[in-house]
Amino acid sequence: MSRWSLPPSAIPTAWFNVIPHLTSPLQPPLHPGTREPVGPDDLAPLFPMALIGQEVSTDPWIDIPGEVLDILRLWRPTPLVRATRLEKALGTPARIYFKDESVSPSGSHKTNTAVAQAFYNKQEGIARLTTETGAGQWGTALSFACSQFDLDLKVYMVRTSYEQKPYRRIAIETWGGEVVPSPVDDPNNPGSLGSAISDAVRDCVSRDDTHYSLGSVLNHVLLHQTVIGLEAKEQLEQAGERLPDVVIAPCGGGSNLGGITFPFVPEKDVRLLAVEPVSCPTLTQGTFDYDFGDVAGTTPLLPMYTLGHDFMPPSIHAGGLRYHGDAPLVSQLVRDGRMEAVAYPQGKVFEAAVQFTRTEGKIPAPETSHAIRAAIDEALAAKETGEEKVILFNFSGHGFLDLAAYDDYNNGRLPEEQG
Amino acid sequence: MSRWSLPPSAIPTAWFNVIPHLTSPLQPPLHPGTREPVGPDDLAPLFPMALIGQEVSTDPWIDIPGEVLDILRLWRPTPLVRATRLEKALGTPARIYFKDESVSPSGSHKTNTAVAQAFYNKQEGIARLTTETGAGQWGTALSFACSQFDLDLKVYMVRTSYEQKPYRRIAIETWGGEVVPSPVDDPNNPGSLGSAISDAVRDCVSRDDTHYSLGSVLNHVLLHQTVIGLEAKEQLEQAGERLPDVVIAPCGGGSNLGGITFPFVPEKDVRLLAVEPVSCPTLTQGTFDYDFGDVAGTTPLLPMYTLGHDFMPPSIHAGGLRYHGDAPLVSQLVRDGRMEAVAYPQGKVFEAAVQFTRTEGKIPAPETSHAIRAAIDEALAAKETGEEKVILFNFSGHGFLDLAAYDDYNNGRLPEEQG
């Protein structure tokens, strides 16, 4: 047997909060004007109180509302798969497992927090959400979630993506969301995630019926993703494994990484590994400091590894990993030595993606392929030492909407990179 | 509970052969030159003997080889899902279930027969396969399967699809297959499935190491798809249902339709419903007669419902349903009154697809959406009568690579149709 599918009744009913397990206290976000810690009132125009509460909660477990569980059960628990064909191709004694988050309606892990955020906003009487999206992975997930709770949604999409990558824009519209290119006030500007955040926040604060929604970085977002690691832990036990030796995930803002690794933080023998692109090496080359979440410098200051909020990463295919900073929770774990990080160039990542596709069958998203590269390298290292290492990685999303990237790789058109 | 996932160990270990259950004998295919029944020797240049044997077998069950099961278990059994959110939106007392074939590596049911065909060819010492593909659903499935058995693959892709729909071409290449536009000898010709079949067959017969592979229509192809219906039957029992009142699937060549309906043929109270586009109404408007499988008239003559092998259906988004004929097994069941057929115009089909997407979350392929339209109409009829009808349909594939079609629908750009 090489695939473990839990029944919908086995879905975790509480999220795992990593905050009580940190070895040093988490520093608070600071107001961009006063540089004092932000309070609930500062955030209330943007987020519902339930999410603001989760942002600072020190409860070890937080119950998942029944209405959220009902929707998550459309695709959760997701399968845990042992990649026996990849193992064989590598000739490794390691056992490689992946958690398949690509089976969600929008094709990635993003849907886990989208549903929770839509629910809490609806519960607080909000009628409409705004958000930004780059390549569109987050926008699709939130549009699906808003369709489930009958919420209106306006997505500010980075203009270059809006014009060059229409498929995710169409998917957002098919679920009922409205999409506009950003920046809205300058049709000649190609846009950036920073400009799109500014547009979405400006829209939100101008209307009483509207809140803003973020798909990564914040504590409550990572909290909602911990269903991934909780399920994986139970499925590994079913597979006869005690614990993995290493848990691996790609890191952009840090949400899928936090989701699969946090439930393993208390298990001191389990290594946790973040994988990032060499072109945006926040954890491997950045500085731990307070910095803004957006390019314009209007969000609260967050304590995190950062390349500087004005850092402009080169255009790479893993658009979800092009962020100048990291989630404070991930940053803290790296700073405290509980989590490791490694960076790979794009070509090595696609080489791993194609090897995975031809052995295990599924085409991974470019972001996901970073984790596959690291998992393969861990398995090859185990081949050298003969160690029967247990490797777990997060298959965070499929690559059906990223095939143009594979075309570039297949035809030798990937841009050169250092590293 | 609204989703039933069987463990990989519960996969069916034999295919269900519908031939012994037909009420009138199946007429044989005829040689295009002599008009005499074709024998195994006529087909040996194209297919391995194991598949030729399956084509005419009257055994009620045919064992699935272990090597095929090992690969099918990467994603099978597929989930059976009860569409409770769609039911609620419709206000129907009907219970609607769908079998989710979109979770396969290539995103559709086509992978089920692709794996079996690749296996039998490899077993007979074949090194290389050729095939044709229209929009690319079949080409992707066979490319995945060939990667698993280390077979070379050359796909002749209808030139207009090759040029206008690059994503499935890229996916075929990523799994290792070679793709060329067809017709190969005329770069100004937009091509058709008929020309692509001619190219693929010509290539095949010119080389001793090469066989040809077909993704629908033939008896052995439909046989390999019966895992769908066999699993669904078991899962419905788990869900507490005795039998469905009606089983629904889209019909192009007939392979996904045969796959989900054939195991229910012996259950006389279960209605079987084929759904086709009004623009290519083979079962509802065609004639039952011997006709060629390809436009050029070079294949054996098959007994089937046909619009004439030179019928050129208008360009619609459900490319998989643009075929002038139907599988002989499906045709026979319709002629004998055991199976019904209904045709829908494209706009009504997309209306159903969007309603499904906004309730159940998943974006269906345009072909699949035909079954959804019929399922919704059956459920609405049950609402009128108050009947607690049990409806089962085949969710044959996802629509991530068909989003341009949704863009046309969302923006009122679908071409006009009769019906």
From TrEMBL, chains A, B:
A single Gene Ontology CC term:
cytoplasm
Mind telling me which InterPro entries this protein's record contains?
Trp_synth_b-like, Trp_synth_b_CS, Trp_synth_beta, Trp_synth_beta/beta-like, TrpB-like_PALP, TrpB-like_PALP_sf
Pfam families (UniProt xref): PALP (PF00291)
Catalytic activity annotation = (1S,2R)-1-C-(indol-3-yl)glycerol 3-phosphate + L-serine = D-glyceraldehyde 3-phosphate + L-tryptophan + H2O
Similarity comment? Belongs to the TrpB family.
Q: Which GO terms describe its molecular function?
A: L-serine hydro-lyase (adding indole, L-tryptophan-forming) activity; pyridoxal phosphate binding; tryptophan synthase activity
* Ranges where the Tryptophan synthase beta chain-like PALP domain occurs: 73-397
Q: Which NCBIfam families match?
A: PRK12391.1 (NF009057), trpB_rel (TIGR01415)
Q: Has UniProt tagged this entry with the keyword Methyltransferase?
A: no
Q: What is this protein called?
A: Tryptophan synthase beta chain
Protein's job = The beta subunit is responsible for the synthesis of L-tryptophan from indole and L-serine.
Assembly and partners are described as: Tetramer of two alpha and two beta chains.
N6-(pyridoxal phosphate)lysine PTM positions? 110
EC number from the UniProt entry? 4.2.1.20
Q: In which pathway does it act?
A: Amino-acid biosynthesis; L-tryptophan biosynthesis; L-tryptophan from chorismate: step 5/5
Q: Which cofactor does it need?
A: pyridoxal 5'-phosphate
Task: Print the organism lineage.
Answer: Bacteria, Bacillati, Actinomycetota, Actinomycetes, Pseudonocardiales
| Keywords from the named record | Amino-acid biosynthesis, Aromatic amino acid biosynthesis, Lyase, Pyridoxal phosphate, Tryptophan biosynthesis
